[in-house]
Amino acid sequence: MLKPLSGIRVLELGQLIAGPFAAKMLGEFGAEVIKIEPPKTGDPLRKWRLLHDDTSVWWEVQSRNKQSVTLDLRQAEAQDVIRQLAATTDVLIENFRPGTLENWGLGWDALHAINPGLIMLRVSGYGQTGPYRDRPGFGVVGEAMGGLRHLSGEPGRAPVRVGVSIGDSLSALHGVIGVLLALRHREQNKGEGQYVDVALYESVFNMMESLLPEYAVFNEIRQPAGSSLPGITPSNAYMCADGKYALVAGNGDSIFKRLMSAIDRGDLAENPAYAHNDGRAQHARAIDAAIEAWTRKHTLDEVLETLHEARIPAGRVYDIADICADPHYQAREMILDSQLDDGTPVKLPGIVPKLSSTPGTVERRAPKLGQDTERVLTALGIDADTQKDWARRGVI
Known about the structure:
Layout: E1 9-12, H1 18-28, E2 32-37, E3 51-52, E4 55-56, H2 58-62, E5 66-70, H3 76-86, E6 91-94, H4 100-103, H5 108-114, E7 119-124, H6 139-145, H7 148-151, H8 166-188, E8 194-199, H9 200-205, H10 211-218, E9 235-239, E10 245-249, H11 253-262, H12 266-269, H13 277-281, H14 284-295, H15 300-309, E11 314-316, H16 320-325, H17 327-331, E12 335-339, E13 345-349, H18 373-379, H19 384-393
Parallel strand pairs: 1-2, 1-6, 2-5, 6-7, 7-8
Antiparallel strand pairs: 3-4, 9-10, 10-11, 12-13
Helix pairs in contact: 1-8, 6-8
């Protein structure tokens, strides 16, 4: 059965996280992904985090289902190859600083003229327009400018990062949505392409819920609140007798009543002031204290067993060892068994979203640097002698 994106060719010019993450998702659902990397060094992600045989194991996640072609995009011959590939490409993904592709003669206007049906996903720190467009922008900057970093951490302490490159990943997800919308538009409008402009800070800002209207109406500047969710009660982390934390979200009106009954606080369940969230939010400290007074008497497992029986949303704080041991992850095929080039076993994340008829798959492991250069260039009609000359001069 054909996958949703079978027949779609993606040309990935990006590096590191945001652009490549978007291409990874498209590849998992059938798109042919040709990744362009600098000769000799390749994508810097190959050297990020923990290395095995001189290559990051992260690479196995980010670059599965991709082909690797090495091109020095600063050289005229390589730029001409991109133009040839763009002529038969559906989606081009790049996450350079705005203006970089234009300086190489590979900007939107130039490639759109070659292929009017081309869709170009452009991911950058601040977008393709505006006074900040020329500033370098990594995910950490986007997280800060988008408002997320200010809310992270404990009150009165330095803001903390989430722990992963969430700004880049959110931008990639917005980019995939934009690409799918643009493909649909192309179907409806006689093959008309367009570019998708995704800014890191805007992708983060789009997740900020009521932050803006609360400021506009109440002049409220939301502050970091640790593990609680301000204005939504109860929703917090509570210490248990064994020193572990239970995460409890009892903020629905009927859920709150069941929670109070489960912890033997029927008096709070029937208190009219706590019937709805707006009333509970005014008494968050008292409610949190009542819940933790109960959790401190029981182990985490005991707490979760009681709350799950009462149909209360609750859970533990998972580390990666917990994730690997969890039967639900296994049942949902969210941990895939694979191996590295030398046969070393490795576990990789599963694929989301899960489609019932045309699920995503891993058809190909992450490529070695330049693994597909010869095949792709030969298909373009570039002969072996020319390729040897280009290799000698560092074009490929």
